[in-house]
Amino acid sequence: MKLSVVLPAYNEEKTIGAALDAVLGVDLSSLREPVEKEVIVVDDASGDRTPEIVASKAGVILVRHERNKGKGAAIRTALEHVTGDVVLVQDADMEYSVEDYPALLRPFVEEDARVVFGSRFLTRRRPTGMRFANYLANRILTATANILFGAGITDEATCFKVLRTDLMKDLPLRADGFDFCPEVTSLVRLRGVPIREVPIAYRARTRAEGKKVRWTDGVRAIQTMLLYRVGIRSARKR
Prior knowledge:
Elements: E1 2-9, H1 16-25, E2 36-43, H2 50-55, E3 60-64, H3 71-79, E4 86-89, H4 101-110, E5 115-119, H5 132-149, E6 161-164, H6 165-170, H7 180-190, E7 196-199, H8 215-229
Helix pairs in contact: 5-8, 7-8
């Protein structure tokens, strides 16, 4: 199996180097079959040293946007370069640990899964360091996904969304920003694809450390799911 790790990055010079070192060095030997890996970073027109740091890492594919377009747009750009069997979205901010990769990939190797989400809430009620406002937003988004789509999940807004590449590329992705996450959830459930969850670790970062998600992104996320549920947005490519 070949894994494509996709990292959208915008002004992440403080963490992108360590994030890439971790991704490049992740140990996948516990899986019962060999896993080849490619790493694709889409620099979303950063104004800091992010692209310079990425370019210094051997074995990393760097793609750059001329202007800032958002996380969803960066992931769509990355998909044009993906050659693996499975796509894993990894943020560059180190909130999510690469040590969870084997658990995320095992359902693809052993159970023929098509979609796996890493859940921050399967083994704990509230992750350490997560602000109450973020916790509440996560609970609302997850409840919305379960009510509208019968998703049966515990963590809709997780960054760790892992999909078979053929499915990911067939989704009519339109979201430019953080609404990429609810868009993926909506689209796979409208197609009847079950979402498998595995527990993951999580270290919340603060706004001072560069966290970019705002309350308006939560509103947009709910709006995105509603638009797909009522059919204003289609689950099929044109």
